[in-house]
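Supplementary Methods, section 5.1.

A reviewer requested that the exact input to the structure prediction be made available. We therefore reproduce it here, unchanged from the version used in the analyses.
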Amino acid sequence: MNAVTPFKRPLTVLLAKPRGFCAGVVRAVEIVERAIAQAGAPVYVRHEIVHNTHVVEGLRAQGAVFVGEVDQIPAGATTIFSAHGVSRGVEAAAAARGLDVIDATCPLVQKVHNQGRRYAQLGYDVVLIGHEGHAEVEGTRGQIDGRLHVVATAAEVASLVVADPEKVAYISQTTLSVQDTREVIAALTARFPAIIGPDIRNICYATQNRQAAVQAMAPHCDLILVVGSRSSSNTTRLREVGEIAGVASHLIEGPDAIDPAWFEAVETVGFTAGASAPERLIQDAIDRLRGFRSVTVRELEGVDEEVVFRLPPRLVEAMAS
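The structure derived from this sequence is encoded token-by-token as follows.
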């Protein structure tokens, strides 16, 4: 009997659960699609609606126009704010141009805005745990009046200068690593014992669930593939979770990014996807694997996510009529 070559051996594919779209992404994408159906193309979107190249290109094909700033949008045009949220300055600029705005900000991001504003109104220095320059962080920063500081790592806590060490509060970006955020919170608590904040509850349920699913899957895998865009914070964190668990992990935009050489000594590969990545990309990637291995697919047990966020009433009413 001939020996089985490395590329002919059976390959087991494990699917993490949950994976892919979260409720905030589903809502944001549906807002754009319904707005196009209601108002007609073009509909303008400030920033990528969500951080996924395939989603953005799909919406662009339907008539969405993505811009960096509202001054690139014709006066009075239908305009959508991305799921990451925007600053008050952006809101004011849109109002000044008479834009017909539909806000697709994720409700969980809005919750962080509200929490930060309450802390600031009470006179606290607010520490925002997050990545400088990320769209969500810039939007949150611009929603909070008063003293606000952005830190990404525990090491950065040492250089914070606050008005009163007894009046410090923290909030966080919703798409962070749970482990990294705990480390920053521990550093903040050590330096400011009176600090108040939500622990890791600002990290959205979907981000936490997907990270936990990768942690549970990792011991059973020789390799982990994370489907999503590199611009997506939560997707990048999933790859890091796999690496921290000791499993070689790659972030891939889609099936074309798969390198068959990764699989020479692999018998089991785990798949997950960032919260802004559509399920079809995982299925396309599995189809690519079938081109050089026989594949058995098994979905792991995990959390059933039943969260649904309401659409803006104007879009619901328009579709009903």
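DSSP finds ten helices and twelve strands in the chain. These observations are discussed further in the main text.
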